[in-house]
Design a protein that fits this description.
homodimer; alpha/beta; Isopropylmalate Dehydrogenase; 10-stranded mixed β-sheet; two-stranded antiparallel sheet; globular; binds 3-isopropylmalic acid; metal-binding (chains A, B); oxidoreductase (chains A, B)
Chain lengths: 353, 353
């Protein structure tokens, strides 16, 4: 129970929520006798503007020496959209073979969801998004550019092995949950990719006969997820569909403020990365209006991934508890500041465990 | 004001809701002195199982002789998913160059939306979905099939001309509405396709200086659309993203029962096609539990497209009015049967106009 963690606070509210997560981790260390060493790294919009540096070999080598990467948020209006996303986030996901993007969709008690009548008991699912291939490979070509006859082709590349590792992970996860797995795709239209996904699910399913398996088109998923989230337990899907339906999941659970995510390397070849799914929100940076719970829950997910289940559960319990008392999930009306929330969560861990 | 309409009732509840739409059209004919000739065509799951026929040259030739196609619903569990979708619906969209899939997202008074606190004034937008290209071209390839090394590539093909006609249409539509246009894409990741879409929007925008133009990523759209639909007026997007966000739109407006759509040919080279967006729901066919309002509003959209704006508005007003009195939008608790709803809408058109 000795860990070395790379910390990348990033831009905007990234450092604010990271401070909160680190304070909570410190409380957890004491109570659960963990020993965590942190090493801070600079990256993000500001760092890029100052140095021109994005993801690079040196940084990758340094990050590889740690057990996990804890990430704040990245982005600033002064950097063109796409630069940091592709130049850093996707680059890390691919270089570190972070095969799974894990996104729990859980409505916590006392959190206001925009879905009328939805209760926490009905909303507890996990979306497993393939995180390294599909449309995110960025392959394509444009011919006859700048003529009336331009054709732009964008490719989605899907490999059996890439899908298999994610599907295998999803079945294992389902076995530890309600034993239901839903493949989300658009196989009636994307016939090549859809067939491979369905084939892999069918073949892995034979090894998990207890898991109830079904299939839902991505358009139908948008129809069912908001009004009947109780239909889903583990949803496994491709990179692009996952990007889309996890944001829908975040709406349902009450917003980006509380949503956590893990970018999981499954074979131990490189560290996994954990981040709240909100953006860098530069307009409210430093104001105390950012909710650190997404970052705190991402830290909990990191501990669970490192095998520290009890510590992870303690953090989740304490963080969820504070949500009940917040009149709003972010902004000036949140009722507590970023640091106050982190302090309350930390002291609850110290007193309750 | 003399029209010839091809009618394809299709499967399941398709014939039920089509009967309703035709009754309402008959009332409208009398009041607005239109003369509409109908020609019924067989197509769909049952017809395919009986004859092996899908979309074909003969049918296309016959349908081309009409001013528009009115479509019920298609599909049955006994036909493998994908066969009718690709073999008929996509085939028609492509053969008839139905460039635009037009999907109003409008919350009507008295309709229960699952979004807490959403009011009709805040929810009135139109999604313009490109309907003939993108990922729907069905191009791709699979190599090393049935080996551990399978790779499935799926292509999205986007042409400047295909995008231009849809974007041009969207700007015109925005000029007749609140003069706001939002491009929805994922241009930070799908760089080839995204760049072409953004280029076309930028260049067409110069001819519509009054229109306020913005851009939202498809994942962010899923985040904003449910809670802040008032941010949007005309949303233009590609075929696949359109498929996804229009279903989300249908949730917000209270369900598939009331959602209408048009597959618009913009150059007069072939007929346009109008259909409710719900499926064939074979389990409730013939029971009187299907809501014909989606089909009725699709018929209104057809009349509007044919230039009969007053008649279209009369149908919409009468159909919307009946929605106020329905305790549920479909099923046994709808309060009125399919035929009763059609009768009420028809008689209201006869008395009010
Ligand atoms: C920042 C961006 C590259 C990213 C994505 O598209 O995957 C984000 O939307 C996410 O979901 O993590
Ligand atoms: C039936 C199917 C081919 C279709 C689509 O994917 O376009 C449907 O979902 C729609 O939105 O019209």
């Amino acid at each position: 129970n000795s860990y070395s963690i790379a910390v990348i606070p990033g831009d905007g509210i990234g450092p604010d929520v990271m401070d909160g997560a680190l304070e909570v981790l410190a409380a957890t260390e004491d109570i659960f006798s963990l020993s965590i060493k942190y090493h801070h790294y600079k990256a993000g919009a500001k760092h890029y503007l100052a140095t021109g540096e994005l993801w690079n070999h040196d940084l990758a080598q340094q990050l590889r020496t740690h057990d996990a990467v804890l990430f704040g948020a990245m982005g600033d209006p002064s950097v063109e959209p796409g630069i940091l996303e592709r130049g850093f986030i996707l680059a890390m996901r691919q270089a570190f073979e972070q095969a799974v993007n894990l996104r729990p969709v859980k409505l916590y008690p006392g959190v206001a969801t925009p879905i009328a009548g939805l209760t926490p008991e009905r909303c507890d699912l996990v979306i497993v998004r393939e995180n390294t291939e599909g449309a995110y490979v960025g392959q394509g070509s444009t011919i006859h550019a700048n003529t009336p006859n331009t054709v732009a082709i964008q490719e989605s590349v899907n490999t059996r092995q890439g899908i298999e590792r994610v599907v295998e992970y999803s079945f294992k996860l389902a076995m530890n949950r309600r034993k239901k797995l839903t493949l989300c795709h658009k196989k009636n239209i994307l016939i090549e990719a859809g067939k491979l996904w369905q084939d892999v699910v069918n073949s892995v399913a034979t090894r998990y006969p207890e898991v109830n398996v079904d299939y839902v088109h991505v358009d139908a998923m948008c129809f069912h997820l908001p009004v009947a989230p109780e239909k889903f337990d583990v949803v496994v899907t491709d990179n692009l569909f996952g990007d889309i339906i996890t944001d829908l999941g975040a709406v349902i659970q009450g917003g980006l403020g509380v949503a956590a995510s893990g970018n999981l390397n499954l074979d131990g070849s490189a560290p996994s990365m954990f981040e709240a799914i909100h953006g860098s929100a530069p307009d409210i940076a430093g104001k105390g209006w950012a909710n650190p719970v997404g970052a705190i829950l991402s830290a909990a997910m990191m501990l669970a991934h490192l095998g520290e289940k009890a510590a992870a559960q303690a953090i989740e319990a304490a963080a969820v508890n504070v949500l009940k008392d917040l009149p709003a999930l972010a902004g000036p009306g949140m009722g507590m500041s970023t640091t106050e929330i982190a302090a309350v969560v930390s002291s609850q861990i110290r007193t309750d465990f």
